[in-house]
Amino acid sequence: MKIATFNINGIKARIQALGDWLDESQPDVALLQEIKSVDENFPRELFEDRGYNVETHGQKSFNGVAILSKLPLEDVVRGLPGDDEDEQARWIEATVVGDNTAVRLCGLYLPNGNPCPGPKYDYKLAWMTRMKARAAELLQDEIPLVMAGDYNIIPQDEDAARPEAWQEDALARPESREAYRKILHLGFTEAFRARVNGPEHYSFWDYQAGAWQRNDGIRIDHLLLSPQAADLLEDVQIDAAIRGREKPSDHVPVWIDLAA
DNA sequence: ATGCCAAGAAAGTCTTGA
C-alpha cells in the first residue's frame, strides 16, 4: 500500500501538477495539506475520475487537508480532537482496509508557529500537545497507524541545508523539536530516517532566492509509523524532482510502501 | 533576508507561508 503526503499549497493552483504526479506515482493513498479551499469548492471529480475516494476538511483561504484513496475510507474524523474552539482545518483521519490489515491514517498540517515567541508559537506548541494526546489514544487500538503530513518541524540540523539560518525559527527551536520528540517517543518510527541516513534530503524549498536551484531546502514533511505500521515498511522515497517542474508547490511528495 | 516568491480574497493591497 503506497501512502504519500503532499503539501500542495492550494488546490486551484496545483490541479495540473498534482494530477500529473498522481498519474505517474499512482499512490493508493494521498494525504494532502494546504488545499486552501472549502469542501464545496474542492474539485473532487478530478480525483474520482482517477478512481480515488475523496474526503476533505477544508476552510476558506488557508490550511485545509484532504485524503485521496483508491480503497474506501471509513470512520472519517475531521479536526484534531481536544479543542472545540479551534476552527483551523489541519487534521483528518480515516481507516482503509488493505489485503493484509486495516490501516488508520491521519493527515496533518501542523501550525508553522512563526513569529516566535508569540501567540502563533503558543498555538503551535499547544496543537502539538493536543496531537500527542490524540496519538496516544490511537496507539491503543494496536493496528497499523500512519500520521503523515507537513509537520513544520526540522527534526535535526542535518535536515536543513543551512541549519544556522533556522536556529531561532519556529520550525527548529528546541521547544519545537522537544514537542516533536515527545510525540515520537510514544513509540513512533519516522519512516524516512528508518531507511536513509545523512544530509541533503529535503521536502521543501522556498520559492524565493533560487532556493531550489541552490538546493537550499529543509525536511519538514514526515510520516510517523506506529510499531505495527513500522513492521510493514518496505520503502520510503521523496519525489524531489517534482519541485523542478512548471508551477510546482514549494513542498514535494514523500511516500512509503507498506506491506498492508 | 524582518520578505527576494507564491497563493488567496478581492479589486487595494493586504495576510500568510517557513
Structural class: alpha+beta
Mean pLDDT: 96
Alpha-carbon Rg, integer? 17 Å
What is the makeup of the main sheet? Answer: 6 strands, mixed
Give the SSE map:
Layout: E1 2-7, H1 15-25, E2 29-33, H2 44-48, E3 53-57, E4 65-69, E5 74-78, E6 91-97, E7 102-109, H3 119-139, E8 145-150, H4 174-184, E9 189-190, H5 191-195, E10 204-205, E11 217-218, E12 221-225, H6 227-230, E13 233-238, E14 254-258
Parallel strand pairs: 1-2, 7-8
Antiparallel strand pairs: 1-14, 2-4, 3-4, 5-6, 6-7, 8-12, 9-12, 10-11, 13-14
Helix pairs in contact: 3-4
The structure holds one DNA strand of 18 nucleotides.
Characterise this structure.
The chain has 260 residues and is of the alpha+beta class. 22% of the residues lie in helices and 27% in strands. It contains six helices and 14 strands. It has helices at residues 15-25, 44-48, 119-139, 174-184, 191-195, 227-230; strands at residues 2-7, 29-33, 53-57, 65-69, 74-78, 91-97, 102-109, 145-150, 189-190, 204-205, 217-218, 221-225, 233-238, 254-258. The strands form three sheets. A six-stranded mixed beta sheet has the order 3-4-2-1-14-13. A six-stranded mixed beta sheet has the order 5-6-7-8-12-9. A two-stranded antiparallel ribbon has the order 10-11. A hairpin with a 4-residue loop joins strand 6 and strand 7. The chain is globular, with a radius of gyration of 17 Å. The mean pLDDT is 96. The chain binds one DNA strand of 18 nucleotides through residues 9-10, 12-13, 34, 36-37, 60-62, 112-115, 152, 154, 165-166, 169-171, 204, 206-211, 218, 220, 250.
